[in-house]
Structures are given as structure tokens and as C-alpha cells.
Amino acid sequence: MTDSTSSNNKLQGKVAIVTGGASSMGEATALEFAAHGARAIVIADVQGEKGQNVAVSIGSNVCSYVHCDVSDEEQVKNLVDSTVKSCGRLDIIVLDLDLAAYDKLMAVNARGMAACVKHAVLGLVRIRVNCVSPGLVGTPLLKDMLGYENEEEDKVVESTYTLKGRLMRPKNVADAVVFLASEDSQFVTGHDLVVDGGHRG
């Protein structure tokens, strides 16, 4: 039998909510949570079709989709309450940070985070508050923002990293989230883990 702390089973039995889990870094994080043995994963997003597709790709026995706009506190409360009711507990909640518009950014990342913490704290089995701060990640949003399409321009973005090799991808951020959500970081709290390839701004 594989030990629950083994490298491919870090989240064995845990229940997680991944906001923004229908695409990009949120989707990558949900997939990594499943790969590391999470018992239940709730994809919370406003992108219904994409969210349902991610849930199906992971498996309905493990993953479900809930429509939720985290800028609406009542929706966040219902999300957390329904998760705890159906799964019996909540171990992890992840807020996706990959947003462009400032107003939406503040509504989701500032007010949305506060709403998530406010309501999730009652359902979490153990409270550890940590944060992952990603730099420039190779996502469709980044390409839209910078207005490029090909791999040569990927190298331009990569050149801004101190750590070279390739353009940072959503999975690189998801791996950091898995670390903070797992028992490997059981004595880590109040930490902002920067995952930016040594970006030189």
C-alpha cells in the first residue's frame, strides 16, 4: 500500500475547492490535486461548460463543478456550505489569481479572498493560510495581454526570468500549490510563495 505522504499521494483523502478551476492555472491545480490523491475536488468558476469538462476529465467520483462568482459573498458562502455538507469537511481552498481587469482583479483577489477565508475558516479541518504569487505564466490570457502567438515570442518572455530553460506553465504554479496544501508544508503558515522564475521586472 502506498503511504499517504509519498510523492504521488500528498493529498490523499483531502477535500479541496479550486476557484477559477475551469481553465489555466486553476485547471492545472485541480488536475494536480487529483493526481496527488485528493478525495474530492470542487471546481468553482463562472465558466460553466469549461468547468464541467474539467470535472468530467478528472472523474465524477472525485470532481464536481459549481457555478460561483467569488466576488459575490453569498455565492462563496453557499459554495463552502455545500462542499462541507456533501463531503463532510474542507481541507483546502484555492483562489485563482489569473485575472486582467483591475476592477475584477480587486473584486476577486481582494474581496473574493476575504470572502473565501471568512466562510472557509469554519469548514477547514486545520487552518493554515498561505499564498502562491505567480509571475508571467504561459497562458492564453498572457498571450492576449501581450498580443503574441508564436513560440519565438515565448522566448522573449522567458528571457525576463533569471531561471532559464522554458516558459513557466500553469503546472509549475500548481506544483507549488500542491506543496502548500500537502503535509510537506504542515508547519508553514502565513507564507507568500513566489513562483516567478526569478522574474526581472
Automatic annotation (TrEMBL):
The organism's superkingdom is given as Eukaryota
Q: Which Pfam families match?
A: adh_short, adh_short_C2
Instruction: Give the UniProt family note.
Output: Belongs to the short-chain dehydrogenases/reductases (SDR) family.
The protein's name is Uncharacterized protein
> What organism does this protein naturally occur in?
Quercus rubra
